[in-house]
Amino acid sequence: MTHILFEKKGSVAIAAIHRPNALNALNSAVLDELDELLDAVGADDAIRVLILTGSGEKAFVAGADIGEMSTLTKAEGEAFGKKGNDVFLKLERLPIPTIAAVNGYALGGGCEIGMACDIRICADTAVFGQPETGLGITPGFGGTQRLSRLVGPGMAKQMIYSAKNIKADEALRIGLVNAIYPQEELMPAALKLAETIARNAPIAVRACKEAIDRGLELPMDEAVALEENLFGSCFETEDQKEGMGAFLEKRRHEPYRNR
Ligand code: CAA
Prior knowledge:
This protein is of the alpha/beta class. The protein has 11 helices and 10 strands. The chain has 2 domains: 4-198, 2-enoyl-CoA Hydratase, Chain A, domain 1 (Alpha-Beta Complex); 201-248, Lyase 2-enoyl-coa Hydratase, Chain  A, domain 2. 49% of the residues lie in helices and 16% in strands. A 6-stranded mixed beta sheet has the order 1-2-3-5-7-10, sandwiched between helices. It has a 4-stranded mixed beta sheet with strand order 4-6-8-9. The longest helix has 19 residues, at 74-92. The relative contact order is 0.11. It binds acetoacetyl-coenzyme A. Acetoacetyl-coenzyme A is lined by residues 21-23, 25, 62-67, 84, 105, 107-109, 112, 131-132, 135, 139-141, 143.
């Protein structure tokens, strides 16, 4: 891949968007590579957590590519929005947990790709925003929807209507990120969190993701029924038997086997 740097550390995969000349802005080529990468990550049983970040020290992702968008027609604009949304939905629906390690500018499509991840942590240098109305467009890769759901419609509307960027401390205050680290400590912190998650029973972790994400779309009685079903299915796993057996035998459980 040209625009994504990919590595595996044990059961944690790290993907870094890499367009050094454009602050990692998302053009069609990056979206195509990301789409392909997500298929590969989803099919790899050995990967338990995906960390998404930006290459270099300045930007996570500075948005969708303004050069590519500048001459789009109405139909092409709609198609570009769909292309981004399809990839971000694939990211959001990846069965394993995803962590956005936001290492700098996360603007427009950059804020949006971060919001398609399960968890966001950032560097103290990170800057978030949806600058689209200042460019004559709406957010186009899910920003109107995910920002409203994450921080509430009032704050989302303020950010989107004003097109004003916010710094890391404000992102933490409004719940857009879970934690802030000094720049050099961000990736170690992301890895530590990913490894902590990866040590837990993978089937149970994936079931929690499904219960939370699907459950949020459902009325409460259907949502708790979904949880009951997923909770029940864990009792068919070897990992549940090992986890509870180890507790009762007062020993440390064996590494979970994803079975
Ligand atoms: N698209 C294309 N190129 C971009 C880019 C983007 N979103 N963001 C930065 N770049 C390019 C710049 O054009 C520049 O290229 P050249 O060196 O060839 O001129 C290079 O990256 C470095 O950028 P700057 O010189 O501007 O760096 P800076 O430090 O002065 O400013 C910045 C950094 C504040 C992030 C500024 O680059 C900026 O405002 N970028 C645009 C951010 C933006 O508006 N993003 C939203 C895009 S719209 C969108 O994402 C729609 C959607 O929802 C799908």
